[in-house]
Amino acid sequence: MYIGISAYNHQSAAAIINEEGKLINYYREEQLTRIKGDNSFPKNSLKKLFEINSLRLKDIKNVIFYEKPLSAYLHPLKIASENLPESLNLISHQLKNFKKSSLYCFIDLAKTFPGLEKKLLYIDHHLSHTLSALAYANSNKKLCSVVADGFGDRSTTSISYVNSPNEIKELWSCDYPYSLGLFYSAITDFLGFAINEGEYKVMGLASYGKKDISIFKIMNKLIYWDNDIKNIKMDLTFFEYHKNIFNSFSNRLEDILGESRNPLENLLIDDNNFKRYANIALAAQDVLTSILKKLFVHAYNLTGANDFLFSGGVALNSSSLKSIAALPFIKNIYIPPSPGDTGAAIGAAYYGYLRNNQNSPHIRIANLYPCQFNSKNQFKKTIKIVSEKFEYLSKDIDNSYEIASELIKNGNTIGTLISNGETGPRALGNRSLICDGKNFEAVNFLNTVIKNRSPFRPTAPAMHEETAKKYFNLNKALYNCYFSMNATTFCKSKELIKTFPIIHVDGSARLQIVEKGSTLDKILINLKKYNIEILANSSLNISGDPTCFDLIDGLMVCELSPLKYLLTDYGLLKKIN
């Protein structure tokens, strides 16, 4: 067995791959601690891996950490030291908190499972991302890997040629502090959203913007592709993430873009400044997409490959993919369901397997639901809560699907907590809130009342492939991305914007093609008799909380929100008023 770990910087996670190269379990630490974005050492995830899989120390050949700690710790300090005295608070913070950095992985592992630290290996951060994407790529062809994130061991963006799983060669990189990911995070911060959490809100907000040439020109000065040196450049005088622990952007950014948004105030569509914020979001999105396109052109010129792996936190920017996929040389883009640092734990574990199986052919992990939990044990723990707070509409699972479908037809929202949890940050049906995707009132209730989300944020649609082809312009190069909700596409008719509440204001949707045999597939099959072919699908949580992991979490969402119905492995529950 091979365990992969990501921790300390963004969300932490742990994954385990068996001797056949298959992903058998995976947890994000936030699922277990219920702390949104938990980036601490994933001790709870590791303990859960050992418990669920009945593992012993001798069962583990290697534990692989997803980056090289010394490089990851020292490189930002080096850049900060070049910006003294402004960077003094950042340097002081880093030195005081080294025990919370990846340098402490060896010690934290020894504390959690004494003896396991002797099996610890470290790999390059971007290699972890590349392998996480490769594990989900449905291809044995020669591939080009593009990784774009905030910051790894040393670089923020890289291009590698993948001849085989054991033959991966990096050909190009962009070094910190120049960073697409940190640029977009700074704009996220400027617009009043939380860094590492609110970037997708910027994408949603951008759809309301109109192209303002003056703002677009400003953005192009902040970050751009330098065609002479074939690399990303930035005017760092507008940013402070590389020299300040508190601020991601400098006062100069407000001088040219106006006052930043107060994060404590709700952003509503009819606000006076909404249009200005939306135009800034659109300009940032357009510049990011433009640079990514140039990056992919450069990657093609370096490798000659037509099939691409795309990973790193920037790969979560689903709005950019349509333009990238339109490049004439691209045949396929493969994005893992969790392209950020949490998914890099899977790539790290995969490295352990490959290291011990040098001649192994490419193995596609392709597991969208690896997060195991003991539902039987959970049900025993919660049976008193269930009996006091809920009634059974059905204990038969097949009948539960039928009743749930009828409830959806009548305009209700259903929470699903079925079997294993999803790999990535996007709920695909096992930990979802779902309703009729054509019912405006139901979608609005799900989005703004149950979830308590901002009205400008769209809700994703889920459907069968034939339905997707009927209403949307699907891109063959992004076909694999549609199953994990990683790409947006546009509807075929502008009239659909008025009739489908799951279509965003610009005609786009981050759709999901449901897998055969999945939870949503079974529900959609039952909904056919009601002529309902599209579901609105959002994660089972209240905005600001992690997605539900187990039955207790699902019951809490019902308790703290107006959600009445919960579809579980043990039947369909209804909250008693």
Summary, kept brief:
The protein is of the alpha/beta class and 577 residues long. It is built from 20 helices and 23 strands.
Keywords:
577 residues; alpha/beta; eight-stranded mixed beta sheet; globular
Percent of residues in beta strands?
Answer: 15-25%
Q: Could you tell me the number of beta strands?
A: 23
Poorly predicted sequence stretches spanning 5 or more consecutive residues: none
The chain-level structural class is alpha/beta
Number of helical stretches of at least 4 residues: 20
Provide the spatial order of strands within the biggest beta sheet: 13-23-22-14-15-21-16-20
**End-to-end separation:** 48 Å
Q: What is the C-alpha radius of gyration, as a whole number of Å?
A: 23 Å
Biggest beta sheet attributes: 8 strands, mixed
Which of globular, elongated, flat, extended, rod-shaped describes the shape?
Answer: globular
Q: Roughly how much helix do the residues carry, as a percent range? A: 25-40%
Q: What's the rounded overall pLDDT mean?
A: 93
The multimeric state of the shown protein is single chain
